[in-house]
Write a structure and sequence with these properties.
Elements: E1 3-6, H1 13-24, E2 27-30, H2 31-40, H3 44-56, H4 62-74, E3 82-85, H5 91-103, E4 110-115, H6 118-125, E5 128-131, E6 136-138, E7 157-158, H7 165-188, E8 192-196, H8 201-215
Parallel strand pairs: 1-3, 1-4, 2-3, 4-8
Antiparallel strand pairs: 5-6, 5-7
Helix pairs in contact: 1-8, 2-3, 4-5, 6-7
The structure holds zinc ion (ZN).
């Protein structure tokens, strides 16, 4: 089984992707994370990705995305199912992802779309803080003020600029313009499993699993 998981920032798709990967023994491919790994490699592709992520700071072009996808899929046994997170973010990425999947002998069985309203997304993301070591911290749960220290290593805490409400709004706008057409395409092709991302992690998990089981992939 091969799954794509999509949803706006703060929808909890990372958590649900991990859950699905464990449940169905899928390789969890978090595109952002994988790109950061590739950027560390001393290869022409690694150097190019590093340059884009750390120097020019632009989005990874489709050509590179395609190459990275191929690298990842080729590293897996053909029968290994996958779950993609963080891709495709726009129509051309969708095309490349599907080409590479077909090339690797796979097809998409379902696209899980975790939907939350914009205000909820902003509310959730703006609670995200971190420390110098990168521990994820939730304001109001792990820390209570910007003067607090990381409960794990006592280092200073801060909020990524991207996670300020203006940064989130900007990303949500891009999401609306670029990613929503991808989601609509999957809906038309009857591949979409849409769930409300507002309830608890457990409840969201159950609605995803119920809908997957209903589809009878097995
Ligand atoms: Zn820390």
């Amino acid at each position: 089984m091969n799954i794509i998981i999509l949803g706006p920032q703060g929808s909890g798709k990372g958590t649900q992707a991990e859950m699905l990967a464990k449940k169905y023994n899928l390789e969890h491919i978090d595109m952002g994370k994988f790109l950061r790994e590739v950027a560390k490699q001393n290869t022409p592709l690694g150097k190019e990705v590093y340059q884009i992520q750390n120097v020019t700071k632009t989005l990874v072009p489709s050509r590179i995305l395609k190459e990275v996808l191929r690298l990842k899929l080729n590293s897996l046994p053909r029968e290994q199912g996958v779950i993609f997170e963080g891709v495709p973010r726009k129509i051309d990425q969708q095309k490349y992802l599907e080409e590479e999947l077909i090339e690797s002998g796979r097809k998409i069985n379902a696209v899980v779309f975790i939907n939350i309203p914009e205000e909820e997304s902003i509310k959730r993301i703006s609670k995200r803080w971190t420390c110098r070591k990168g521990h994820p911290l939730i304001m109001g749960k792990d820390v209570y003020s910007d003067k607090d220290k990381c409960p794990i290593d006592a280092s200073a805490i801060f909020q990524r600029i991207d996670d300020s409400s203006e940064g989130v709004r900007k990303r949500l706008q891009v999401y609306e313009e670029e990613t929503m057409p991808v989601i609509e395409n999957y809906r038309q092709r009857k591949l979409l499993i849409e769930v409300d991302g507002r309830p608890s992690i457990e409840e969201v998990r159950n609605s995803i699993l119920t809908q997957i089981e209903k589809r009878n992939f097995f």
